[in-house]
Each structure stands twice: as structure tokens, then as C-alpha cells.
Design brief:
Layout (H helix, E strand, L loop, with lengths): L18 E2 L3 H4 L8 E5 L15 H5 L5 H6 L4 E4 L15 E5 L6 H13 L3 E5 L11 E2 L5 H12 L2
Parallel strand pairs: 2-3, 2-4, 4-5, 5-6
Antiparallel strand pairs: 1-6
Length: about 160
């Protein structure tokens, strides 16, 4: 079975509505190469528009696009409430943590805190409707395909 998503109208530039913590815009270039992605399973992935078998690149990027090619090489670690919050990422690459309403659950705060404590370059993205600045370096205020495509554009520079 092949699923095809509708094309995203990037002329609307959803990133204009994003909130950035101080210094984040200037630091984005550090995340444009290879990075490790940590997906916080705060909601059923299907609700987020990202079926379990999809990567974020497959859900949000146009097939064959530069953003898709750039993002698809990044390893993804999915973390849920039953996983150890003290997960150690043995990586020298920058880490992008993606979730929705990151501050709402104790376990998500623990994961973000652990990643920030053990990794040198960390960018935390909250795609929920009620982001807490303590757990959102970038707040997108939405997790639909349009917001996801805008986020991938920022993260890949494409």
C-alpha cells in the first residue's frame, strides 16, 4: 500500500508563527548537517499525522525534495513513557528533540532534561498548542503537515 500526501503550499511559510528562544535562530546552522532525532511519543503518532512507520521526513517533506534527502539520513530514537528517561545518546552529533506539549508530562520533562545534560548541542521543538518556554527552543503551535514542512525547512536549510 502506498500513501500519498497532498502537496504543501510553502508560500504560506508557517514558520512565521513559530516562537524561538533567544539565540536559537543563530544556532540553527549547527543542526543542518547530520543530527540525531529524539521523538517524544506524547500522543498517538497517528493523531500527529505521523503514522508509526513514517519518519518525519516522509510525513512532512515533498518526496524527492532537498529537505527530504537531507533529513532522511538522520537516525531517529522514539521514546515513550515506559522508556528510561536517562537514555544516554552516545553521539557527537547535534540532537533535535521533537514532541507536543513537552512540559505537560513528567516523563517528557525528564527525557528533555537528560538529553540536555548529556549532549552538547540540543534543540528542543514543541509542536503542541501550549508550549512551555522551558521545554521549547522552538514552538511551532501546530503539528500538521504545513507546520512540519516549515520546521524541516528551518532544520535543513532547504
Amino acid at each position: 500500500m502506498t500513501l500519498l500526501a497532498d502537496a504543501v503550499d510553502l508560500d504560506l511559510d508557517a514558520s512565521r508563527g513559530f516562537r524561538f528562544a533567544p539565540g536559537v535562530r543563530e544556532a540553527l546552522t549547527a543542526f543542518r548537517g547530520r543530527c540525531t532525532v529524539v521523538r517524544l511519543a506524547t500522543l498517538d503518532n497517528d493523531v500527529l499525522g505521523v503514522p508509526r512507520w513514517y519518519t518525519l521526513q516522509e510525513a512532512w517533506a515533498e518526496p524527492g525534495s532537498d529537505a527530504s534527502a537531507s533529513w532522511s539520513g538522520n537516525p531517529v530514537v522514539a521514546v515513550g513513557p515506559s522508556d528510561d528517561p536517562e537514555l544516554v545518546l552516545a553521539t557527537a552529533t547535534p540532537v533535535v528533540v521533537v514532541g507536543a506539549d513537552n512540559a505537560a508530562s513528567r516523563w517528557t520533562r525528564q527525557v528533555v532534561d537528560a538529553v540536555r545534560a548529556t549532549c552538547r548541542s540540543v534543540l528542543v521543538v514543541d509542536m503542541g498548542e501550549r508550549p512551555d518556554p522551558s521545554y521549547a527552543d522552538i514552538a511551532t503551535y501546530g503539528h500538521d503537515r504545513r507546520h512540519g514542512a516549515a520546521l524541516l525547512g528551518l532544520l535543513t536549510g532547504c
